């Protein structure tokens, strides 16, 4: 077999059915990335592309990190795979200790998965199992949020609030409700950081509790900041109020931190940044800097203790994946956390946030820009949709940015930006200058 850097892209791109992609459109004009280092990708046609999205919100320490590559290579030749069902090997235990140190207070246990979607479905299952284990087996209802994205498992699309991700797939999980989303552009357009408080939004949870009775509700799941659906921020006090209502009614609160975890907002997790403690945190992506698939559910001590007590020495959770705690992924995770620690990347977004915010809001006044939202090292830029062609405008900006040398991400008519946390000021300038040019070139 040829070395990886000599394998050309096949002329016929039909065999790979691509995820979340208009396959035929893509194949007509493919954008192929062939290598990456630091803040940049290299495209097949030899251009350098500034990474404004950390891949897919995952390469927080930048690309091509030698420490991760070496840890992975060493682990594969040392122990490529070993089961974690009734067996163990050292690395996932070690990584769990490091994760518990990084996590907010009280998080003492880690269940491993391979992706954000699996983390979400795992957390939902733990919630149901815990309610049952403590004798509250009637609590089976789950509450998500409109415009929430929780991956693509059946649990995730059921609690998720994206119509396009749900409508093809039947009746989904029964007994799921959705809180309203928190995006209110007429009121909050161009707010810097969190929008002003809007107590009525969190109080919608009270209404659901009243309607169904707390004795039927297991858990609420929200992204502290919704990323994939266009950077939707929680109003001030919103998450705290959800916490209060959940605590009052014995409902578990799950933060889906697949995007916000590992430093995106300026603290290791959003729970620390917003000072709200959920019962479980789902994560993935930045856990291994995107280099090897791995996810995790972080679990509060008492929740785990209750499950152990209920297990009475038998199996406490009938759930797990062949690759839960995979040695190679765990090696990547340990190397990644070490980079974050040494380079203080988990709090770097806090230092860069002011500069980032000013740069993002410089787009106010650009053609068709109707809102800019930001927090930490994340920003959303919402465009007026083109008449009769929703999503077209942002897609054209995406293509234009790529041609000019910047990778951005679009969802509908919203541009989402989430660069590697190593980004420097000049690169922030470059990213927003390129974006500004692309926006001004719109029809
Ligand atoms: N939850 C959230 C909040 C996400 O942003 C994502 C992915 N963008 C997922 C879950 C799903 O993660 P994955 O694609 O790794 O399954």
From TrEMBL:
InterPro entries: Aminotrans_3, Aminotrans_3_PPA_site, PyrdxlP-dep_Trfase, PyrdxlP-dep_Trfase_major, PyrdxlP-dep_Trfase_small. Pfam families: Aminotran_3. GO terms for biological process: biotin biosynthetic process. Its cofactor is pyridoxal 5'-phosphate. The keyword Transferase applies. Coiled coil: none annotated. Transmembrane segments: none annotated. GO terms for molecular function: adenosylmethionine-8-amino-7-oxononanoate transaminase activity; pyridoxal phosphate binding. CDD domains: OAT_like. PROSITE patterns: AA_TRANSFER_CLASS_3. Keywords: Aminotransferase, Pyridoxal phosphate, Transferase. Belongs to the class-III pyridoxal-phosphate-dependent aminotransferase family. PANTHER family: ADENOSYLMETHIONINE-8-AMINO-7-OXONONANOATE AMINOTRANSFERASE (PTHR42684), BETA-ALANINE--PYRUVATE AMINOTRANSFERASE (PTHR42684:SF1). This is Aspartate aminotransferase family protein. It comes from Aeromonas simiae.
């Amino acid at each position: 077999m040829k070395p990886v850097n000599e394998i050309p892209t096949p002329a016929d791109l039909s065999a790979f059915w691509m995820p979340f992609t208009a396959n035929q459109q893509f194949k007509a004009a493919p954008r192929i990335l062939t290598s990456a280092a630091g803040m940049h990708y290299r495209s097949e046609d030899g251009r350098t592309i500034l990474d404004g999205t950390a891949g897919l919100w995952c390469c927080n320490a930048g690309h091509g990190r030698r420490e991760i590559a070496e840890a992975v290579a060493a682990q594969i030749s040392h122990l490529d795979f070993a089961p974690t069902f009734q067996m163990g090997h050292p690395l996932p235990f070690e990584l769990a200790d490091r994760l518990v140190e990084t996590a907010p207070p009280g998080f003492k246990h880690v269940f491993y998965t391979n992706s954000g979607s699996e983390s979400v479905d795992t957390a939902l299952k733990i919630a149901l199992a815990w309610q049952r284990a403590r004798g509250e087996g009637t609590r089976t209802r789950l509450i998500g949020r409109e415009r929430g994205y929780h991956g693509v498992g059946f649990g995730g699309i059921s609690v998720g609030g994206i119509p396009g991700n749900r409508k093809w797939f039947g009746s989904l999980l029964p007994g799921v409700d959705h809180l309203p989303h928190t995006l209110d552009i007429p009121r909050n357009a161009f707010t810097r950081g969190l929008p002003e408080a809007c107590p009525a939004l969190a109080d919608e949870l009270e209404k659901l509790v009243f309607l169904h009775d707390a004795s039927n509700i297991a858990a609420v799941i929200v992204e502290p900041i919704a990323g994939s659906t266009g950077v939707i921020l929680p109003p001030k006090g919103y998450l705290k109020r959800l916490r209060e209502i959940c605590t009052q009614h014995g409902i578990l609160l799950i933060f889906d931190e697949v995007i916000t975890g590992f430093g995106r907002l300026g603290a290791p997790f959003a729970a620390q940044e917003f000072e709200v403690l959920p019962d479980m945190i789902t994560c993935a992506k930045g856990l291994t800097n995107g280099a090897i698939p791995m996810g995790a559910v972080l679990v509060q001590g008492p929740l785990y203790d209750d499950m152990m007590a209920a297990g009475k020495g038998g199996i406490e959770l009938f759930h797990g994946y062949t690759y839960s705690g995979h040695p190679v992924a765990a090696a990547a995770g340990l190397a990644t956390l070490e980079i974050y620690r040494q380079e203080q990347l988990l709090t770097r977004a806090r230092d860069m946030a002011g500069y980032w915010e000013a740069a993002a809001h410089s787009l106010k006044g650009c053609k068709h820009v109707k809102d800019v939202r930001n927090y930490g090292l994340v920003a959303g830029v919402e465009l007026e949709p083109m008449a009769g062609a929703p999503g077209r405008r942002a897609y054209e900006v995406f293509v234009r940015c790529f041609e000019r040398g910047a990778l951005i991400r679009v969802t509908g008519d919203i541009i989402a930006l989430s660069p590697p946390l190593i980004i420097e000021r000049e690169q922030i300038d470059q990213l927003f200058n390129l974006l500004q040019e692309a926006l001004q070139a719109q029809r």
